[in-house]
């Protein structure tokens, strides 16, 4: 007997993964961890793209997934460089300590 | 097996191709130029300007074209061409004002101009996005370049901090944007904007998936960040203060216009059928953005922060036009064309104001306190005069571009029946007059500190900065005194798209 996982399960899982990422961004204070949580958000998004793609029998979702992965890799390159310059000048990547600019 | 390449008209891509090639040439010229001992690298800026001028020409050749090359991934049409003019004008002015600023901060290097050119490409992709995929790629090409540019003064802790804040919040917003796109894709079965519009027209009224509404909400968050709409504006003042002044100017003009271009593509055109569902959200955001931006601008003592809040407020005015870009007959045409006109006008007078801030700097020190402007009217009369003009235009007083821009935006809102929103916008522009005119008062009616007076003797203008200021003044006055040409162009651009 075969059993197919319904679309909604995938969507719920992707929403959970996305929410874990959002919660991490809002709660954690280490710039690197925040950055990793953003990547978790993107994983949730990718899961929903793939699920929709399978459900709709359309390829665009999978293509989109590849683009998201590529862009995420580029983002890592830029992001780590920026975090590195912060670390060089302060020996810390805690976002609460980065507070020169205030209004 | 035979491998066949599809035939495409590369002429449609000429502006983008020229930008990429110029960017690469600038990077290479910098690398090979380093062998020569001379330290002056300003030729890289002139090389970039040449590329931008060529792009301008290639773009003007595209007027009247309506095409959707690459299976509809790109939409090359009059609206894209109009926005390209806005982006090119902003990039050119920024390159011109960067030459002396870059020399003072020793950042006249190939990467700087290369990044500006590549981010201009990202903006063009956003404006010519026929598919959510293209728009997403444009957003990312633009943002990744801007993160680096914001932190370009590597030795300065403030610049580093601006880059980090911008990067973390920007990547966070991208996550929402993508999640929204995936929901729209799931609800309509396509990422192509034209197909999406067709799907919505064919769908029975009131019977669209709830996913669509969630997707629209997430898209508003993602794009709201890019156009610095309240409540997604928190990063703006910090990033604008910490970034190099020439880059602050860049951030406030081109990328915002690109954000509005994407919003127009997605909401005003593709999701036009759901205008009744999305105008409420934009109404609220527009009202909040104008009000908060203007009120917080009043209390700022740093001119870069003040202009940051002022740019938030101006994003609010453009959002008013966006709210009005749908619904009753003809509203779409009028609303979108006022978005086009306002972004063009804003580019000139806002970049002009930032060019004055750049001209105020001495050595590697920027003068950004409002107190530094005391008595400027006597120390440097010409500079004070143009600054006064830009402030008058930002405040929206005739005969400047700012007045005409506000006028067409309010008219389009009234035409679409948003009376209360127009009233809020008018009240806001009255509040705004206060802090813009205060700059003029400080310049002409307050005595400068003693050490400032001594410094005035050594004032000097760099030629490129003067050209940037003159261009900004001409743009502000031309769009203010003879607006009909540009209004016509904006209206015709939208008309060509609606057919």
The residue ranges of chain A in which pLDDT falls below 50 over 5 or more consecutive positions are none
Order of SSEs of chain B: HHHHHHHHHHHHHHHHHHHHH
Q: Largest sheet of chain B, if any?
A: none
**Secondary structure tally: strands of chain A:** 0
Radius of gyration of chain A (Å)? 18 Å
Fraction in helix of chain B: over 70%
Query: Which residues of chain B form runs of ≥5 with pLDDT under 50?
Result: none
Total discrete domains of chain B: 1
CATH class of chain A: Mainly Alpha
Explain this structure.
The complex is a heterodimer of chains A (103) and B (499). With 103 residues, chain A is an all-alpha fold. Chain A has one domain (7-97): Helix Hairpins (Orthogonal Bundle), CATH 1.10.287.3510. Chain A is built from 3 helices and no strands. Chain A has helices at residues 7-27, 31-56, 60-90. In chain A, α2 runs antiparallel to α3. Chain A is elongated. Chain A starts with 6 loop residues before the first helix and ends in a 13-residue tail after the last helix. The model of chain A has no long low-confidence stretch (mean pLDDT 90). Chain B has one domain. Chain B is built from 21 helices and no strands. Chain B is globular. The mean pLDDT of chain B is 89. Classes of the chains: A mainly alpha (103), B mainly alpha (499).
Which helices and strands occur, and which strands form pairs?
The complex is a heterodimer of chains A (103) and B (499).
Chain A: H1 7-27, H2 31-56, H3 60-90
Chain B: H1 14-33, H2 43-60, H3 69-72, H4 78-104, H5 110-127, H6 132-150, H7 157-188, H8 193-202, H9 210-226, H10 235-242, H11 245-270, H12 275-298, H13 303-323, H14 331-360, H15 376-379, H16 381-395, H17 401-415, H18 419-445, H19 450-455, H20 463-481, H21 484-498
Provide a quick synopsis of the model.
With 103 residues, chain A is mainly alpha-helical.
């Amino acid at each position: 007997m075969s059993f197919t996982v319904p679309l909604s399960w995938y969507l719920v899982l992707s929403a959970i993964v996305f929410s874990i990422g959002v919660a991490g961004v809002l709660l954690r204070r280490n710039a690197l961890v925040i950055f990793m949580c953003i990547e978790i958000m993107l994983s949730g998004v990718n899961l929903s793209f793939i699920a929709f793609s399978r459900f709709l029998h359309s390829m665009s979702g999978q293509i989109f997934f590849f683009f998201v992965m590529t862009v995420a890799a580029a983002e890592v390159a830029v992001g780590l460089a920026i975090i590195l310059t912060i670390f060089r000048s302060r020996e810390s990547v805690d976002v609460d300590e980065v507070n020169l600019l205030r209004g | 097996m035979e491998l066949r390449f599809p035939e495409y008209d590369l002429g449609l891509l000429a502006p983008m191709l020229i930008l990429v090639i110029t960017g690469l040439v600038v990077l290479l010229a910098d690398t090979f130029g380093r062998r020569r001992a001379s330290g002056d690298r300003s030729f890289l800026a002139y090389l970039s300007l040449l590329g931008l001028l060529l792009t301008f020409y290639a773009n003007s050749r595209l007027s009247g074209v309506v095409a959707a090359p690459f299976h509809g991934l790109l939409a090359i049409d009059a609206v894209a061409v109009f926005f390209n003019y806005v982006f090119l004008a902003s990039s050119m002015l920024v390159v011109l004002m960067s030459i002396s600023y870059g020399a003072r901060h020793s950042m006249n290097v190939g990467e700087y101009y290369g990044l500006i050119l590549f981010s201009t490409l990202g903006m063009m992709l956003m404006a010519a996005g026929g598919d959510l995929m293209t728009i997403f790629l444009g957003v990312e090409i633009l943002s990744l370049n801007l993160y680096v540019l914001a932190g370009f003064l590597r030795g300065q802790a403030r610049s580093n901090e601006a880059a980090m804040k911008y990067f973390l919040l920007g990547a966070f917003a991208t996550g929402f944007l993508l999640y929204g796109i995936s929901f729209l894709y799931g609800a309509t079965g396509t990422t192509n904007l034209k197909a999406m519009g067709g799907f919505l027209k064919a769908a029975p009224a009131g019977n669209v998936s709830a996913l669509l509404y969630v997707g629209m909400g997430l898209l508003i968050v993602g794009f709201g960040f890019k156009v610095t709409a309240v409540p997604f504006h928190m990063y703006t003042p910090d990033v604008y203060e910490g970034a190099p002044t020439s880059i602050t100017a860049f951030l406030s003009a081109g990328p915002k216009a690109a954000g509005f271009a994407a919003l127009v593509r997605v909401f005003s055109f593709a999701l036009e059928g759901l205008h009744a569902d999305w105008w409420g959200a934009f109404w609220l955001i527009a009202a909040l953005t104008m009000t908060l931006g203007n009120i917080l601008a009043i209390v700022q003592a740093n001119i870069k922060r003040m202009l940051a809040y002022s740019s938030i407020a101006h994003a609010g005015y453009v959002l008013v036009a966006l709210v009005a870009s749908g619904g009753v007959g003809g509203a779409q045409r009028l609303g979108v064309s006022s978005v086009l006109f306002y972004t063009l006008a804003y580019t000139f007078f806002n970049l002009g104001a930032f060019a004055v801030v750049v001209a105020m700097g001495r050595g590697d020190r920027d003068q950004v306190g409002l107190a530094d402007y005391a008595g400027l009217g006597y120390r440097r009369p010409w500079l004070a005069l143009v600054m006064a003009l830009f402030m008058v235009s930002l405040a929206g007083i005739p005969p400047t571009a700012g007045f005409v821009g506000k006028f067409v935006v309010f008219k389009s809102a009234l035409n679409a029946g948003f009376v209360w929103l127009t009233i809020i916008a008018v009240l806001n522009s009255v509040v705004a007059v206060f802090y813009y005119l205060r700059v003029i008062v400080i310049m002409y009616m307050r005595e400068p500190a003693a050490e400032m007076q001594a410094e005035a003797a050594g004032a000097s203008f760099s030629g490129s900065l003067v050209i940037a200021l003159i261009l900004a003044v001409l743009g502000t006055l031309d769009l203010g005194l003879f607006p009909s040409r540009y209004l016509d162009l904006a209206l015709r651009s939208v008309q060509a798209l609606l057919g």
